[in-house]
Amino acid sequence: MIKLVDKTNEQQFIDFCHTDNIYGTMQYTRYLCYKDYPNTASFWIAYNNDKVMGSISSLYGSVIISFVNDEDVILEMAEFTNHIDVSDLWCDMLFMIFYTEECASFFKITEKTMTTSSTMTAVLGCGKLSPVICSANNRLKEVFEVVCQGYNIMSDNDTYNTWLSNITMKIKRANTEIFALTQDDKIVCIGIIGYQHNNAGEISSIITLPEYRGQGFAKEMTSHLAAVLENEGKQAFLFCENERLVHFYEPLGFVRTGRWVRLS
């Protein structure tokens, strides 16, 4: 049985999110940011005999699924997702291994692309705080310019305003923090601690300006963010979209802990 999250089962949803150090952090962060915007985001709980076995969230059609390994529950969640708008789907690789054929029909995606990659988790004690890295939550325009260069996106006002609205929401409601490494007060490398809950936090958007690459700034930033999370008693994790990134992060103390898939 799948129910919409409301005040009566909100704590059950939050508690379940805290049992999953990957997708749970993503869904919990979404909930903090968008629980008061039902036209933008929706959240559901999957039950089996009144026991919480999974959660689903949808934000602008981007769906995240988190579950306990129960075939009946997974199948019900996949079938349920067939009845909501889906632009892309994030789930554990296990979901796809057992239900690839079912998902192809459930999600009604005619031209689907599936990206599989690795989840990397930091080994305790791998991080190191850097004295030259500081918070950049008050320098968002400069951060945005670095993001544009890192992801090759247009630096126009509409794009900036959309990005600013999203990141400001996360900073205010979900403790997202942006860090910057500077030279002569110029931001040359950034990193973000984004999705997080009480037990874990995601390191993302490690970006160095092209002209400053090859100097070890990305490694220094990654170690710093891992240390920040460790000092808060949280497990650091990140997503690697290819093997090259896996090999980059492994020497920094990260180990491969799982596979994830994005279906769009």
Offer a concise description of the structure.
The chain has 264 residues and is α+β, with helices and mostly antiparallel strands. The chain contains eight helices and twelve strands. A hairpin with a 2-residue loop joins strand 8 and strand 9.
The assigned structural class equals alpha+beta
- Mean pLDDT over all positions: 89
* Main β-sheet description: 12 strands, mixed
Assembly of the depicted chains: single chain
Number of helices, counting only DSSP H or I runs of 4 residues or more: 8
Strand order of the largest sheet: 1-2-3-4-5-12-6-11-10-9-8-7
Question: Any chance you could write out the topology, listing elements then pairs?
Answer:
Layout: E1 2-4, H1 10-17, H2 23-34, E2 41-48, E3 51-59, E4 62-67, H3 71-81, E5 88-92, H4 93-106, E6 114-122, E7 133-135, H5 140-151, H6 157-174, E8 177-183, E9 186-196, E10 200-208, H7 217-231, E11 235-240, H8 243-249, E12 254-263
Parallel strand pairs: 4-5, 10-11
Antiparallel strand pairs: 1-2, 2-3, 3-4, 5-12, 6-11, 6-12, 7-8, 8-9, 9-10
Features:
264 residues; alpha+beta; 8 helices; twelve-stranded mixed β-sheet; globular
Plain-language structure description:
With 264 residues, the protein is α+β, with helices and mostly antiparallel strands. 37% of the residues lie in helices and 33% in strands. The chain has eight helices and twelve strands. It has a twelve-stranded mixed sheet, with helices on both faces. A hairpin with a 2-residue loop joins strand 3 (51-59) and strand 4 (62-67). The longest helix is centred in the middle third of the chain and has 18 residues, at 157-174. The radius of gyration is 19 Å and the shape is globular. The protein starts with a strand and ends with a strand. The relative contact order is 0.16.
